[in-house]
Amino acid sequence: MPDDLPLHALLSQVLVSFTIEFDNEVEHRMPHRTTSHGRSGGSGPWLVSLAMWQNCLFHLTDDRITVGELGRRARTPTNLDGMRRWGYVTLEPREGASATSQPGPSWTMRPTGAGRRARDLGRQVLGEVEERWNDRFDREAIGALRGALWDVADRFEVELPDTLPILAYGLRNRGPEPAVPRSPGREDPSRLSLPALLSRVLLSLAIDFERSSRLPIAVAADLVRVLDAEPIRVRDLRRLAGISKEAVAMALRALEETNLAEVAPDPGGSRFKVASLTGRGRTARTRARRHASRVEEEWRHRFGAPAMDALRTSLDPLVEGSPGPLLEGLRPYPDGWRAKSPIETLPQFPMVLHRGGFPDGA
């Protein structure tokens, strides 16, 4: 229930739900290709998620811009090599640079024809899904959520991106580099999408958590949360944590390397591997829970109890219940790749990976 969930979990489940609904709609309308599910609608780019629109496509015009300018607009890195390889952009080196060198800030880029179609469709679908939410949850309730998010986000001291960044080494979040100071009251919140507002608040919360935590919030909130001393089949972790098997594998590897978890053959004799927390891992889980509570309490002092209460109150109705209203909007189209893997659980922190930016690491 929402009262039991930390703030990062409430924000995350709302953001992930909106993202998957956006992704399903774009997938249904846009010709694309996937690794495991072939092509849909003829020739098209490789399918990616909303994060790749927000950290790349939405900031591109039909004319060329430099890679450095994209970074300034998006305020977070994109997967340049992926966006080129997947068919969304073209990249050209600066004069005199080798075409085989790593793209740098002076390289130029622009969307391909498929990239322009994806960019324009994404903008359209983003507005449509937000309007669906106004109808589904009540326009006044979504307005209250937007207002509560903005009341906090407008007091941030640096400019943050409109998306969660692709998780860096160790599955940690990264803020904008360089950090650009911002002035409260100079931005029009009506021009920001709901996922942009959610992302800014969630990213700031994650940065504050990770500033004094060795355990990344994504690993703590998703995988460590569901692991314990008793072994759990690795194949079941995807369902329990709400993240993809690839994300589970990456998080487990990070936990094994730091002696917080161990993976072993099933002592019951099945062919499946099992995972469990070590003694250090259980201590780290307890510390992470306490640390999340401390960060929330610090935010109550920083932003004021009324603002934090309003934020939680506006999120609670969207998350409460079983299976909850969020899941009602996540029924995929029959031809969508998620139709074969229906959503049962929403993660308590998005796993945005370089693989395409999907919020569950798919």
* Helicity range: 40-55%
Structural class, judged by helices and strands? mainly alpha
Question: Distance between the terminal alpha carbons, to the nearest Å?
Answer: 26 Å
Task: Report the radius of gyration as a whole number of Å.
Answer: 20 Å
Give the averaged pLDDT, no decimals.
Answer: 94
Biggest β-sheet description = 3 strands, antiparallel
Q: Name the strands of the widest sheet in spatial order.
A: 3-5-4
Total number of beta strands: 8
Shape: globular
What fraction of the residues are assigned to beta strands by DSSP?
Answer: 5-15%
Helix tally equals 13
**Helix and strand sequence:** HEEHEHHEEHHHHEHHEEHHH
Uncertain residue ranges: none
Describe this structure in words.
- This protein is mainly α and 362 residues long.
- It has helices at residues 7-29, 50-54, 67-74, 80-85, 113-137, 139-153, 194-211, 217-226, 234-241, 245-257, 279-303, 305-319, 325-328; strands at residues 32-34, 38-40, 65-66, 89-92, 108-111, 232-233, 261-265, 273-277.
- A 3-stranded antiparallel β-sheet has the order 3-5-4.
- Helix 1 (7-29) packs across helix 7.
- The chain is globular, with a radius of gyration of 20 Å.
- The model has no long low-confidence stretch (mean pLDDT 94).
Give me some keywords for this one.
362 residues, mainly alpha, globular
Describe the protein's topology.
Layout: H1 7-29, E1 32-34, E2 38-40, H2 50-54, E3 65-66, H3 67-74, H4 80-85, E4 89-92, E5 108-111, H5 113-137, H6 139-153, H7 194-211, H8 217-226, E6 232-233, H9 234-241, H10 245-257, E7 261-265, E8 273-277, H11 279-303, H12 305-319, H13 325-328
Antiparallel strand pairs: 1-2, 3-5, 4-5, 6-8, 7-8
